[in-house]
Amino acid sequence: MPKKTSLRKILVLGSGPIVIGQAAEFDYAGTQACLALREEGCEVVLINNNPATVMTDDTCADKVYFEPLTLASLQSVLEKERPDGLLATMGGQTGLNLALAAHESGILERFGTELLGTPMSSIQQGEDREAFRSLMQALHEPVPESTIVTTSAEAVTFAAEVGYPIIVRPAYTLGGGGGGIAKDEAELETIVTGGLEASPIEQCLVEKSIAGFKEIEYEVMRDANDTCITVCNMENIDPVGIHTGDSIVVAPSQTLSDDDYQRLRSASTKVIRALGIVGGCNIQFALDPYSDQYYLIEVNPRVSRSSALASKATGYPIARLAAKVGLGYGLHELKNPVTAHTYASFEPALDYAIVKFPRWPFDKFMDADRTLGTQMKATGEVMAIERNMQAALQKAVRSLEINLDGLKWPGVDEMAAADLEAALTNADDRRFFYILELMRREYTSEHLAVITSIDRFFLDHFQRLIAGEKRAEATSFAELEREQLATFKKDGFSDHWLSTCWGMEEAELRDYRFREGIIPAYHIVDTCAGEFEAETPYYYSTYSGRDEVSVNDHKPGILLVGSGPIRIGQGIEFDYCSVNGAQAVKELGYEAIMMNNNPETVSTDYETADKLYFEPLTAEDVIHVAEREQVEGVLLQLGGQTSIALTEALEDAGLKLYGASFDVIDQLEDRGRFYNFMQKAHIPHIPGQTGVDAEDTMAKARDIGYPVLLRPSYVIGGQGMSIFTSEQALQAYVEAEDNRIAYPILIDAYFAGKELEVDVITDGSNVYIPGIFEHIEKAGVHSGDSIAITPPYDLSDTHKRQIVTYAEKMARQLDFVGPFNIQFVLSEGTLYVIEINPRASRTVPIFAKASGNNLIEQAVQLLLGYDWVQVFGDKRGLAPETSYYAVKAPVFSTEKLPGLDPLLGAEMTSTGELLSFGETKEEAMKQAFAWKDGQMPAIYEKTGSIFYHIAGGQQAACEPVLKALEDMGFTLYNTETYAFDDWLEEENGLLYISIPSAGSREFASERLAAERSRKMIVTDPKTLHELVEARSNKHEVRAAETWKQLDLADEKV
Amino acid sequence: MKGYIVLENGDIFSGQFIGEERTDVFGEAVFFTGMTGYQEVATDPSYRGQIVIFTYPFIGNYGVHPGKDQSEEWHPRALVMGECASDGYHYQSEETLASHAEKVGVPILTDVDTRALVKTIRKSGAMGAVMTTDPDTVVWNHYTSIEEKPLVNEVSTSETETHGSGDTHIVLVDFGHKKAMVDALCAHGAKVTVVPFDTDLKTIQAFAPDGLLLTNGPGNPKQLEEQLPEIKAAIMQYPTFAICLGHQLIALAFGGDTSKLKFGHRGANQPVLEKASGRVDMTAQNHSYVVDKASLEGTDLVVTHVNVNDDSVEGLAHKRLPIKSVQYHPEANPGPEDSQHLFLTIFQMIAEEKEVTIHA
């Protein structure tokens, strides 16, 4: 069917800020969809308030609205833009929910906007539990028996019908809290009684347990002509019971017979046809390992994290083709872009193994509950491709960047076997490593299969890893034969681990390998297992096979190292930087070669750079690619701390790097050297010293004077940072047994002043600063967690000038080219530098969106040798301020991580960020607080009661706000006037203000209780002030472009 | 032990033989891109005389299952793969693939760079190959190419068998059929009589069938040229559905021609467009030979299905008679079940035929 020509202007819904369960995969999907639509000549309008995305670049969309993902915004945009079509299946659950709300309110009909692709009735049928269940019954497709109960007697009756075990899921509890699996009636009664108490609406879903079944997913596509294909199937190594986002997953399935495979495939196509989906769809099955019985667990009538994974695993671009199918094309009319001469109506055949490994935030959130279950907790994931399972697993582990050398989790060897076994039955993020440890202790796969319900196929492959590890440990480099080393490399062991194991330098081992020709070959991901010629340069390394790379002889290559998995402190913003970097490199006439391992991202779309290497990002892996491609140099500034951390090793390996040497980076990241540098440059910095042990730390802290901030160097997201206001507090901390301090540690004076942040680009003598961000919360709150606004609303011209002067001084005295980020604190009239990050930062994409300054493009031009005038003309110093305000605000996933204290502090806890605009600061702020339907601050929607715990020292700062709240009609309670626990029960309890004194974590248990009761919590006086002040503001919805035009108009006046 | 697959063009790929030392084994090297279904492949008579290279690197994962064999024997001369699983990881597994292969005397070469091997075949076409432990001593005059080899007589039944007890009686002319075809017909309510490939018209008439199914089988359809008149006489008399080799024979019988594809279609993901509906099905395929589209001009056959990738002929229908055929495998096993409904075609043709007879 040819495309529908009536669809000229399409509105695309984005998924908004990154939260756990909804990450970069929707930037990838959205970007692909926008580009596909533009390729078809459509005008693309986008709503997405996540600035750190590629899809919100003007190369992807014609108009971008950084507006809250609310029905109100959608209505205004529909009214202004009158789009012909709405594409709602690219924005995750957020986009889908918004489209559903729009449909129900009738606004799509009113503005004559057609929903593209999957019809609304299908979405409703997929989303509504009951409708879905009855459809499945009509199709004779089995779903797990379940019912909703409000008494334990009802649960017992249900269990008598369907049999035990029974899963109990209390409604609306955090992370499935209060639920569990009951093996008999007594357990069921206990769990349901507890669950009903935990549930705010006193409801539990009871379901026949299929825990231990194989969890299998199919990615299915359908066009309006009823052609159905399954792009890929995937098997979770962790069986049903652990969220697929928290499971290690392989593609394709490994333990399914052809019968199993086809039975589930046929069920998938039957379901997608019955639902009438037009586009992509994800279907999850549970398959009994001991019979033919299967159940449909879930259907997602949209692209998803799994479809991004499937696209990267196979090379088949699901979102791109789903968008085109939405315009009316048949799959057989669309070319498969990988081969360029076969069509999209086929099913990829793989000739390699894919392993996806989740990246969890527990390296940062050490107090959060690490147990894995039905609530996803991973912030990101990595994918690995290899010809064998061992090497794919090793690549995946290496890509996680969790400070492991090899496969041994620190401390596992000291754990008792019984404890390890116990930890396996109550799985957490360390499960894989615990299994390996038990294998080191000769546990058999059979035994471990009983404990974990993981298929022996996978366990036997894990055993091969341990066998390899033991073989390596039993030999030495002197005894090593060439073939043995080749086998270790085939099994994925890294040079780093092997050389440590054999007590030698990594470079020495690498040299030996290169001499012996033990180097990886690179294979193409071609969707067809070699059956057809493929044109897409999408590669993975393997030690099993012949090389397929063709080096471009006409263009010098530049290797860009990406940022790996999304984690706290290193989010999608660095993917934005990498993608823009690749575009800039291409434009300058080089071949852009991208390396990354995150399947969710745009950077790992093989259409982004000229070549894509899907690889771990360790020095060894990067050196291999650089050597194979004979690149001119390697760009490390764009991939966050992941790539910067490689500077020393790559420099030692003799690779050309751009912008800065390791020495310069070390000068900025090593605090001692940093202070010396600042003193030499005559720039005031926060007084700080290094403590080598507990005693030294106490002494230095006394010298500096309290309060102090403790921080380790070379970290992202402020890991391990905390503030101490008194000697007693610090003493208690350093003497505590579980203090987790790694010496040497840095001790800084803590100045509770105004925090300011700038991004600077320099060629070594000139600087350009696109703007200054003023932070709302005081220094001490991690910059990633504070609300920031540009232009600054409360900063004198003198200080602005001073910022520029300091930036210039630094630029001139550093041997550095490219982007860097400076954080300042303004305390009692003096501007101090807190830190410098010698790389692109979190705020770079925000300036690009807020004022149209593409710093990455400019930085790449400078790095690759353009002079200042070629890039900037006569522009220098601070860019003119915009006439409107742009607010960057953090978004947290605290509700997904039970046990995590939502208190703002020196350690970053947010997972994403948003951007909003306003003519006034308050207007912009309001859009930042009210960023999504379902996330509205309750005090914006109604009046009711507010409970506050405010520490003595903070009361003065809060009093005006409390007064204002009272004037607005809110009832204010504190411990003296009301019992906190009783207030939590109150439906009209709208906001919990919980402000401890600086450096203290007091009221933590109250915050956790409020979190469980789903109350909004504010923990900082400044945040509170902005929240309340913005409450009654009006806002006009405008596209980013319109804001910029307003600015130009102002300038002319 | 270390082993090799040596191609006719001189290329050598090394690997590890599972099991004991053996004499050189010759065959035509072809590749299969399906990711599951090795047991069905190994027992599919159409692979007679071939050395099957699996593109998917993990073979044997779920072992060998009862009831999944497509015939009594293993037909490929050898299997070539990346890894062969050390166990059968499935509740239905009775035996590992390796031990079963050992038992039936089919060598398995593992640890082969199958991707490079497949790319060679893609570029140079399917060709003769030998599995050996010593590539220097290979004597090629031991090899006869598939084109010149009568293979159907090796795989067709020698005796007549009957399956099922339905009302519709279908005679299945066996050129090397897969069990799943009989199963599919029986499941739709047929009584199936399996007869040898060279059964004459009179014998078929004696069974008084309602319709015929011409099956798949190994090798070059032109090896059966002598039989074409008998085949044509039979299919003109009974509603006929044909699969794979059977489909090629129908084309030849009505004056069309067949030729050999460079490296064939073997896998579970071949997209086939049904011209009437515009719908594409994923199909299971296993063939080297194909009906020439141009050769059908002026014949009584029309093309009903085409391959989306290379536009090759995938389905035919006779302009007047109830004769239909497909190049691919609606019985799946292995592969997608999308085209199972095609088995209804024969029943529909039979029903229509009966109606015509009654009204006449």
From TrEMBL, chain A:
Reactions the enzyme catalyzes: hydrogencarbonate + L-glutamine + 2 ATP + H2O = carbamoyl phosphate + L-glutamate + 2 ADP + phosphate + 2 H(+); hydrogencarbonate + NH4(+) + 2 ATP = carbamoyl phosphate + 2 ADP + phosphate + 2 H(+)
A biological process from GO: 'de novo' UMP biosynthetic process
Broad EC category: ligase
Source organism superkingdom: Bacteria
Annotated family: Belongs to the CarB family.
Subunit structure: Composed of two chains; the small (or glutamine) chain promotes the hydrolysis of glutamine to ammonia, which is used by the large (or ammonia) chain to synthesize carbamoyl phosphate. Tetramer of heterodimers (alpha,beta)4.
Protein name: Carbamoyl phosphate synthase large chain
Organism this protein belongs to: Natribacillus halophilus
TrEMBL record, chain B:
SMART domains: CPSase_sm_chain (SM01097)
Domain of life from the UniProt record: Bacteria
Any single Pfam family the record assigns to this protein: GATase
PROSITE patterns attached to this UniProt entry: GATASE_TYPE_1 (PS51273)
Key word Disulfide bond present: no
InterPro entries given in the database record: Anth_synth/Amidotransfase, CarbamoylP_synth_ssu, CarbamoylP_synth_ssu_N, CarbP_synth_ssu_N_sf, Class_I_gatase-like, CPSase_GATase1, GATASE
Sequence ranges assigned to domain Carbamoyl-phosphate synthase small subunit N-terminal in this UniProt record: 1-132
Keyword terms: Amino-acid biosynthesis, Arginine biosynthesis, ATP-binding, Glutamine amidotransferase, Ligase, Nucleotide-binding, Pyrimidine biosynthesis
SUPFAM superfamilies reported for this sequence: Carbamoyl phosphate synthetase, small subunit N-terminal domain, Class I glutamine amidotransferase-like
One term of GO molecular function: carbamoyl-phosphate synthase (glutamine-hydrolyzing) activity
Subunit structure: Composed of two chains; the small (or glutamine) chain promotes the hydrolysis of glutamine to ammonia, which is used by the large (or ammonia) chain to synthesize carbamoyl phosphate. Tetramer of heterodimers (alpha,beta)4.
Official protein name in the record: Carbamoyl phosphate synthase small chain
Organism whose genome encodes this protein: Natribacillus halophilus
Gene: carA
